[in-house]
Write a structure and sequence with these properties.
It contains ten helices and 14 strands. By secondary structure, it is of the alpha/beta class. The strands form two sheets. Strands 5-4-1-8-9-10-11-12-13 form a nine-stranded mixed beta sheet, with helices on both faces. Strands 7-6-2-3-14 form a five-stranded mixed beta sheet. A hairpin with a 2-residue loop joins strand 6 and strand 7. Helix 2 packs across helix 9 and helix 9 runs antiparallel to helix 10. The radius of gyration is 17 Å and the shape is globular. It starts with a helix and ends with a strand. 48% of the residues are buried. InterPro entries: Carb_kinase_PfkB-like, Carboh/pur_kinase_PfkB_CS, PfkB_dom, Ribokinase-like.
Length: 280
């Protein structure tokens, strides 16, 4: 990786944060794709990372805020509004997280994030942006893309073709969760996403690893074995590790290997990135 490149480029992760409430353990952890990617990209080697998001004025929002600061990220672009922070209720079964219910983003869904002048300046300076389908910022994506060099987006398991057709053309890289897809189905789906206008596509497939496609070339990446504690955030860690490596100047294969190793590391600690808080 090139240190020169890492000093000139960074990542702005924009959008969702939540607390993941582990019902059986009576504890919650900070999480959410955009927040996880910001924290974990920094943890996995990217020096210049910023987070833009919205929290509620409740205890959970305060914990998200303090956890972000504890991880060395700035709160300069963090908004706080009256209402509930995003919350998801989960249980862990054999090390795998099972979602029970959520408040659908809480205040973040009611008050859409809008990019101000300082946000756009930050995006222009760092160049690389990541967001997700849980962030409710779709109307802002064209402005974000216009100010950025690269824009990645995590669709999770979203497969609605109208939604994909609306979002893919403004992206440079799309991530999908596709453990339910066979290899042939994943290859066909990737082809469809390229046809919608996104140049690079990555589908993660759980224990079968991931498949990455760009420039007519398909690359498959296997998993790295881990001492399983909690799979919460493993997919986000893959994204974070990949983006950290690529922004730091790595070529595709080393970046994918770094992503797989990052996902394995994330399985070895509780929550998406730790910071437990007692829950009633």
């Amino acid at each position: 990786m090139s240190n020169a490149i890492s000093r000139q480029a960074g990542l702005v992760s924009i959008g969702d944060n939540v607390v993941d409430h582990y019902i059986d353990q009576r504890v919650y952890y900070p999480g959410g794709n955009a927040l996880n990617v910001a924290v974990l990209a920094r943890r996995f080697g990217l020096g210049d990372v910023a987070y833009i998001g919205l929290i509620g004025d409740d205890e959970e929002g305060a914990h998200v805020h303090s956890s972000l600061l504890a991880e060395g990220l700035s709160d300069a672009h963090l908004r706080r509004a009256k209402g509930e922070t995003g919350k998801a209720k989960v249980n862990i079964i054999d090390g795998d997280r099972v979602f029970i219910e959520s408040n659908q983003g809480g205040v973040r869904k009611r008050l859409m994030l809008r990019m101000d002048v300082d946000d756009i300046d930050l995006i222009s300076r760092l160049g690389h942006v990541h967001s997700s389908c849980f962030s409710y910022i779709e109307p802002e994506l064209p402005r974000i893309r216009a100010a950025s060099r690269e824009l990645s987006f995590d669709f999770s398991t979203e497969r609605d073709r109208d939604y994909l057709a609306a979002i893919c053309p403004v992206l440079t890289l799309a991530f999908f969760s596709g453990s339910d897809l066979s290899n042939d189905e994943a290859d066909s789906f990737i082809g469809e996403m390229h046809a919608l206008g996104v140049a690079s596509v990555c589908v993660t497939q759980g224990e079968r690893g991931a498949v990455f496609s760009e420039g007519g070339r398909v690359t498959r990446q296997g998993i790295v074995q881990a001492k399983l504690v909690d799979t919460m955030g493993a997919g986000d860690a893959f994204i974070a590790g990949f983006l950290a490596a690529r922004i730091n100047g790595a070529s595709l294969e080393p970046a994918l290997a770094h992503a797989a190793g990052s996902a394995a590391k994330a399985c070895e600690w509780p929550g998406a990135f730790g910071h437990p808080h007692p829950a009633e």
